[in-house]
Amino acid sequence: MITIYTRQHQQITDQPWSMDDDMPAGLVWVDLNSPSEAERQFVSQQLKIDLPTPSEMEEIEASSRLYTEHGVMYLTTMVMSGSETPMPIETELTIVQAPQCLVTMRFAETRSLETFAYRIKRDPNLMTTPDEALISLLDAIIDRMADILELIGRHVDDVSRQVFMRHEAEKGKVKRKARARGLHDILSDIGRSGDMVHRVRDCLSNLLRLVAFISPIVTPRLHGEQLTYFRTLDRDLRSLSDHSQFLAHEASFLLEATLGQINIEQNEIIKIFTVASVAFLPPTMLASIWGMNFVHMPELQTPWGYWLALAIIFISGIIPIALFRRKGWI
Question: Quick count: other Cβ atoms within 10 Å of Cβ 192?
């Protein structure tokens, strides 16, 4: 699908672009969302640029993602899609700064482009020059990365409270089996948070390379507030990268803490079996002695032998338990 944004009477409007239509006047932005090969070639011919194919967008070499050709700048970066769904993904976004207009091409929905479209409709001055349009688009993408990191940070904080405060809240109320299920759920939450953080870090590293590539090209053409705006974006991007690294360490710490609590739960179970086996060892030994089939066993001839044996077996089981409790082992 091709959506075009045109400037008319100091306002920016959007409309679909059919391959049967000519290039409209006042074109400022062309957005290709999951375009077919025919649509890609159509836009390339109309704007006289060479849009990359989907396979070319997936290449990981920096020279294939960031380059200039005949005065046109081609920038491919990774952005997040479906970050608020159970299955977030990274998707390629190609930005082309052509002389006529700005062109974007992607194969998944991304909130940052929706934000950018809303901003330029509200403030058409963001699309005054090609450089300003590019910087405004990058600002929308970076803002979306910041929103995603805030979402991850809140989720990590919730998981942290569950990990370190669950025993106080559950003491005497929840059975051990239910606590084990809770730890398994927490592990899943930590895994999702860690996966999300790593995806965002990959997107941020791509954006850092993109900004480093365009900086020597764009900054000589900027002046005043535009240059300050661009440098602010660079600082914001670096601060987000540092914050994502902190969240990655936090997720790793929570993973180790949760695994440690699972080990403690397992050790508690093993300790119970150990105490039970030690407590039953003396009674078992005594019962084995008196269960031997010898003819001459004095206790068998006494009328009180049975009751004495029961008492001794019972006492021999109580003594280890009392000793363990006195030592504080149980």
Answer: 17
The half-sphere exposure of 87 on its side-chain side, counting CA atoms within 13 A, is: 1
Distances (CA, A) of 287 to 172, 303, 321: 37, 18, 18
Question: What whole-number distance in Å separates Cα of residue 197 and Cα of residue 311?
Answer: 64
Instruction: Read off the tokens for 248.
Output: 């990655």
Q: Where are the domains of the chain?
A: 2-152+191-265, 266-327
Express each pLDDT in 30-55 by its tens digit. 888 988 888 888 888 888 888 888 88
In angstroms, how far is the first alpha carbon of the chain from the final one?
A: 68
Beta strands per DSSP E along the chain: 2-8, 11-16, 27-33, 66-69, 72-81, 89-97, 102-106
- pTM, full prediction: 0.77
The CATH code belonging to domain 2-152+191-265 is 3.30.460.20
Q: How far apart are CA 323 and CA 42, in angstroms?
A: 86
| CATH fold of 266-327 | Methane Monooxygenase Hydroxylase; Chain G, domain 1 (1.20.58)
